[in-house]
Design a protein that fits this description.
With about 120 residues, the chain is mainly beta. The protein is built from one helix and seven strands; from the N terminus they run βββαββββ. A hairpin with a 3-residue loop joins strand 5 and strand 6. The two termini are about 35 Å apart. The N terminus is likely disordered.
Length: about 120
């Protein structure tokens, strides 16, 4: 009969706060246009708060969280990202000699692209 995945699942939802470098105060090239460092330095930290954090897959952006707050350093701007990640354990049943389910065999833990609900 083949493998039956997700007969049941163990779901884990986690909010992770992580500090990362958002932008360095140097010249940037965007779509062939050079953005000078002085223009990048004028960016205010408040403008970044609430921006979505995405995973880009081809032409599609999957939202996985947001920038919670940002602050300027001497050479770059830092931010705290709040990542909302939901996943579940996929498994298949293990049957005994009589064909009854006696346990499970873990197959993989899968993170969802977007939080459901």
């Amino acid at each position: 009969m083949g493998n039956l995945y997700r007969v049941a699942s163990i779901v884990s939802y986690k909010m992770i706060e992580q500090t990362v470098s958002l932008v360095q105060f140097r010249d940037h090239k965007v779509n062939g246009v050079v953005i000078p460092a002085k223009a990048v330095e004028t960016l205010e930290a408040s403008e970044l708060s609430g921006l979505p954090v995405v995973i880009r897959v081809g032409a599609v952006d999957y939202r996985i969280g947001m920038i919670h707050r940002a602050r300027k350093g001497r050479l770059e701007m830092f931010g705290d990202l709040v990542l909302e990640i939901e996943g579940s354990l996929e498994f298949e049943p293990v049957k005994d000699a009589e064909g009854e389910v006696s346990g499970i065999k873990p197959v993989k833990f899968v993170y969802q692209k977007e939080k459901s609900g």
